[in-house]
Design a protein that fits this description.
Layout: H1 11-20, H2 30-39, E1 47-51, H3 57-64, E2 68-73, H4 76-83, E3 90-93, E4 110-116, H5 124-134, E5 135-146, H6 164-168, E6 175-183, E7 186-193
Parallel strand pairs: 1-2, 1-4, 2-3, 4-5
Antiparallel strand pairs: 5-7, 6-7
Keywords: Methyltransferase, Transferase
Pfam families: Methyltransf_11
Protein name: Methyltransferase type 11 domain-containing protein
Length: about 200
């Protein structure tokens, strides 16, 4: 399987993009919001982590639904902008691919692990086993991704995503696909660890 290449950007690169205003928050449409809320079967006071949260727009949406939410990102500038917005969400600096797992991500402690337009940047061989370990027995991994052509050449950081083949392969390696929804050129995927009792 050909994996769609994501730009290899450092925290310093992202800090520059956020400081210059080039990394603008990606809007959350009503269709995405309604679909995610209903398909994730969200209940107030669930614990959620938003990985690669950027300036926290989706993190704040999760918090607005009553979830106990923390956003994690490795861009200090992005997190400063996220904290400037009024919200009950919390934010922490963390490089998911390089740093040790923070103490807040205890085994079996998280109901929702969210990767909104960030999954394609992560080391999946590290993220997926970790997410499975963090989740409660009924926990879910939510991925929102752009649908991309793996042969399209160089993509900007804001265009990268996953090919249809990559999306189709997600229901393996200890996971099953509970739900998929599509709108425009994006796909929302809800995964649960294999053998979990359901939502």
């Amino acid at each position: 399987m050909t994996r769609t290449a994501a730009p290899s950007l450092t925290a310093k690169d992202w800090n520059g993009l956020y400081a210059s205003g080039k990394a603008t928050p990606r809007l959350i449409g009503d269709g995405e919001s309604r679909s995610a809320h209903s398909r994730l079967s969200l209940v107030r006071d669930m614990r959620a982590v938003d990985l690669g949260c950027g300036t926290g727009k989706w993190t704040r949406q999760l918090a607005a639904w009553g979830l106990d939410t923390i956003g994690l990102d490795f861009s200090q500038v992005a997190l400063e902008q996220a904290r400037a917005a009024v919200s009950h969400a919390r934010y922490e600096l963390w490089d998911i691919d390089s740093n040790a797992t923070p103490g807040l991500l205890l085994p079996g402690s998280i109901d929702i692990v969210s990767c909104r337009l960030s999954f394609s940047f992560f080391d999946r061989s590290r993220l997926l086993p970790n997410a499975r370990r963090w989740l409660t027995p009924r926990g879910q991994l939510y991925i929102l991704t752009n649908v991309t052509d793996p042969h399209a050449g160089n993509l900007s950081p804001f265009e990268c995503g996953m090919s249809e083949e990559e999306i189709g392969s997600l229901g393996s390696d200890g996971w099953h696909v509970r739900d998929v929804f599509r709108f425009n050129r994006r796909v929302g995927i809800v995964l649960q660890p294999s053998g979990s009792p359901g939502p």
